[in-house]
Each structure stands twice: as C-alpha cells, then as structure tokens.
C-alpha cells in the first residue's frame, strides 16, 4: 500500500462538497433520516445530515435532492461522514439579500420573514393558518382584519367602543323614535 496516496485520499475526504442525490426520511423508532451525496463521480453511502436542533428541542427541515451540501468526514472516512446543509447556488438563491431580514421561503410560495430593521413579522401563505391553544391566545395591540369572520362561543368586551357601519352599537348607544308600549325602537343613532 502506498501510504502517501492513502493519506492524500483521507485528507481530500475530510471536507467534500456535493449535492444531495437521495433522501431517506427515516421511520420513527426504526431508522434515522439519511441522505446520499454525489461529489464528482463519487456517490456516498447513506449519511446522517446535521439539523438545527436534536435534543429536547428538535427541528425537522429535511434537505432536498439537488441541494448543495458539505460532507465532514472525521479522519477522512466518508463512511463516517455527516452532510452539512446547505450552500446557496444560482438555482437556489436566498429568499432575500436584505441584511435587516431573517427569511424562510417554502416550495408552495409561503414565506416567513422577520424584518428586524422595522420590527415587523410577515407571514405570507397560499393556504391557511391553524392554531391549537387550549390555554387560549392573547393579542396585545390593535388588530386590523379584512375578510369574512366566523366565530363560535361567547363574546365579551370591557371598555372601548363598539360600532357597526359608523353607528354606536355599544352598551351606551341610544335609539331614536322610542314610544311607550309594544312599539319597536328606531335604529341606533
């Protein structure tokens, strides 16, 4: 065996760049998620990929075929490598180049973006939002709503005013055309 050639191969394999060729999303309790990476003519075996968190807090954001990654191989042994997603490329550009924003774009055109330069969180979805919070939700600050609204359950308001089409319909509203007896009142004034 040529020790110099073997050492050179191990050094070259310490860090390699490639693209995801296959993704196995794993099976809960049976096998962990893995990827195969193509680097030049080389196709790796199944390697784990590094995620954001994998402790008591865990992230799930699997890489996709074609995504450019770096393989870190301790000791130069690709069989022990880890795929480190991800590197931007011309076919997969960042969702923004604005240093004042943190942004995540999704394949269905959804976008989550925090504009820390202007203190604004933006969520643009082609579908809907589902929130399950048995303890309730709390909104502090004004709410502007456009579109239809359906609701179930009680409604309670403390303080402030309540209007409909510019007319006061709150607890202190007044009616015109009041007559004693069984007559109906006029609309709120």
From TrEMBL:
Domain of life: Bacteria
InterPro entries tied to this protein: Gp5/Vgr_OB, GpV/Gp45, Vgr_OB-fold_dom_sf
Residues covered by region (Disordered): 148-189
Compositional bias annotation for Low complexity: 159-169
Domain Gp5/Type VI secretion system Vgr protein OB-fold: 33-88
Gene3D superfamilies in the record: 6.20.150.10, Gp5 N-terminal domain
NCBIfam families reported in the protein's UniProt record: phage_P2_V (TIGR01644)
Protein name (database record): Baseplate assembly protein
Source taxonomy: Bacteria, Pseudomonadati, Pseudomonadota, Gammaproteobacteria, Oceanospirillales
């Amino acid at each position: 065996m040529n020790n110099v050639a073997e050492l050179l191969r191990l050094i070259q394999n310490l860090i390699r760049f490639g693209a995801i060729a296959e993704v196995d999303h794993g099976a809960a309790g049976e096998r962990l998620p893995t990827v195969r990476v193509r680097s030049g003519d080389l196709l790796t075996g199944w390697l784990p990929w590094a995620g954001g968190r994998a402790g008591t807090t865990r992230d799930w954001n699997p890489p996709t075929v074609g995504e450019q990654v770096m393989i870190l191989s301790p000791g130069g042994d690709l069989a022990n490598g880890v795929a480190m997603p991800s590197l931007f490329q011309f076919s997969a550009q960042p969702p923004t180049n604005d240093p004042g924003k943190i942004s995540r774009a999704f394949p269905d055109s959804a976008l989550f973006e925090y504009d820390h330069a202007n203190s604004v969180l933006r969520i643009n979805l082609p579908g809907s939002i589902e929130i399950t919070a048995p303890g309730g939700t709390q909104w502090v600050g004004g709410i502007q709503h456009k579109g239809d609204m359906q609701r179930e359950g009680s409604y309670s308001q403390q303080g402030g005013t309540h209007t409909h089409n510019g007319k006061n319909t709150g607890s202190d509203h007044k009616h015109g055309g009041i007559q004693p007896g069984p007559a109906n009142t006029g609309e709120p004034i």
